[in-house]
Amino acid sequence: MALLEVHDLHVYYGNIEALKGVSMHAEPGQIVAILGGNGAGKTTTLRTISGLLRPRGGSITCAGKSLVGIEAHVIVGMGVSHVPEGRRIFNILTVEENLALGGYLIRSQHQLIKERKAAVFDLFPRLAERRMQLAGTLSGGEQQMLAIGRAMMSDPKVLMLDEPSLGLAPILARSVLKTVREIAKRGAAVLLVEQNARQALAIADHAYVIEVGRIVLEGGAAVLAKDERVQKAYLGGFESVAGG
Q: N- or C-end of the chain: fewer Cβ atoms within 10 A?
């Protein structure tokens, strides 16, 4: 059994079926890219795994334990952290205070909080330089680093990232994604939803292509990067890869 197992997931918004039997898995130390166009179901998949949405059917397990029906904050304690699109940091709090909120489940364990902050600052030295700065005054790249660092404060087994490079200059985007690779090397499984397909496939081990709520392609990231259907879909705006 994989660390994260998603099987036959069905999710609805009202009467509209957003996910139609999605299945995927991720292993420790593996980056899994989820690719697709707008409205394909990428964000819905992450939100369902993290407990923000409830599926009508299917199963989700992390380390063999079911996540279905579990409250989102409890899922964090079970080892799954979610960095949403748009970062969602607290602008009026400092870098240190944002990180402390990320460690709320261990808030009484002061030494552990200190150790995890040190680990975040090791990953993102720029945050260490700005630890007392208000988060709202950081650059876009620094805010994304902070959002990821806050998620790392819970020492996740599974880290889910929704469009981490969105709105960043290319050099900063590459820097953030390089750090994602480092996080995986330290043992976490990473689910990566990323607008820049080439960069996502370059750092990922495995990838899924989702289209109108269904997985239409999956395989090794290097293999999919060379797949003519994937190349055409990205160049053409991701109209369809299902029909070849």
A: N
Structural contact between residues 150 and 100, judged by C-beta atoms closer than 8 angstroms: no
Q: Mark residue 90 as left, alpha or beta (left: phi above 0; alpha: psi -120 to 50; beta: remaining).
A: beta
User: Average pLDDT per run of 10 along the chain, which is 244 residues long?
Assistant: 94 96 97 92 96 97 96 94 88 93 85 92 93 92 93 95 88 88 94 89 95 94 88 57 46
How many domains does one find in the chain? 1
Alpha carbon of 46 to those of 53, 107, 132, 236: distances in Å? Answer: 9, 26, 31, 25
In the structure encoding, which two tokens stand for residue 108, read together? 């009484």
List the structure tokens of 62. Answer: 């992390």
| Helix and strand numbers, DSSP H then E, in the chain | 10, 10
Residue 215, domain CATH: 3.40.50.300
Which ranges of 107-166 would DSSP assign to H, the alpha helix? 110-123, 125-129, 140-152
